[in-house]
Design goal:
Elements: H1 3-32, H2 35-61, H3 66-90, H4 97-100, H5 103-142
């Protein structure tokens, strides 16, 4: 790993920290927001998710690293599985999406989705630390 790659990794970890801070702000806002505010925030988040997904897919598509291709394939499978699960939840019984599952079941679904997201963040951080460890070990060997 070059020094530039090390810096990029540090920047990515900083971006993750900012995203988590934004998530915390949204959670706090949702505790006191009215229904219209929740819907507006939900629409904004859907837009942000679509943008970041497109950006990520473009970066993955242009990467020449073979391990990134494996990661991209895995990411695609996970996204497909999540979308399938959400579609099943929304279209159970053939009812309208808002009527399909009671709110408490949607809250439980959201709770587990957040648990999985936290696990993904933990794994990403672990991979980052492993890369930093490898970089530092390489630097020490060169001394």
């Amino acid at each position: 790993m070059s020094w530039m790659a090390y810096e990029i990794l540090s920047i990515k970890m900083y971006e993750l920290d900012k995203k988590i801070s934004r998530l915390q702000s949204r959670i706090q806002m949702s505790e006191s927001a009215d229904h219209d505010r929740i819907r507006a925030e939900k629409a904004e988040l859907q837009r942000e998710c679509a943008e970041s997904e497109t950006e990520l897919r473009n970066r993955l598509r242009h990467s020449r690293n073979s391990s990134v291709a494996v990661l991209a394939e895995s990411y695609g499978e996970i996204e497909k599985s999540i979308k399938t699960a959400v579609a099943r939840m929304e279209n159970a019984d053939g009812k309208e999406p808002e009527e399909s599952f009671p709110a408490d079941e949607k809250i439980m679904f959201a709770e587990y989705a957040l648990d999985f997201a936290m696990q993904a963040v933990n794994h990403a951080l672990l991979v980052s630390m492993e890369a930093l460890d490898a970089y530092m070990s390489q630097q020490e060997e060169q001394l």
